[in-house]
Amino acid sequence: MDLGSINWVVVLGAAAMAFVLGGIWYGPLFGKSWQGFIGLTDEELANQGKPAVIMGVAFLLTVVQAMVLAATMPDTAGITAGASHGLVIGLGFVATAFGINYLFSRHPRALFAIDGGYNVLQFALMGAVLGAFG
User: Fold this and answer.
1) Membrane-spanning residues where (predicted)?
2) pLDDT digits (tens, 9 = 90+) for 109-120
3) Are 55 and 72 in contact (CB under 8 A)?
């Protein structure tokens, strides 16, 4: 992993795009369903656990994801190859790890579809951004 050749501006942009996707995914698209599956009310989300800290740490973790994705990206990726690389990582590593955890924890399949689906799209989006501009 060659961190010296990473374009940090593009990594931050890819992370920001993934974060926006997460806001849409866990907001208007699937927010209420996700909340129901994990048992959190609007009040609990707003008032428990210091939401600003949670969002800040979540963004930093997303930057780490984008950085590692950038470090594993082929040098001549392009947008399509970058999206494909992210899709493979999202499906092959992240969604399958969620799937194993959700099987043993007995979480509903629909929650796996929400969380796994987001991560697959997130990595494909970050890969596309990194491939196009990295």
Assistant:
1) 6-31, 52-71, 83-104, 116-133
2) 999 999 999 999
3) no
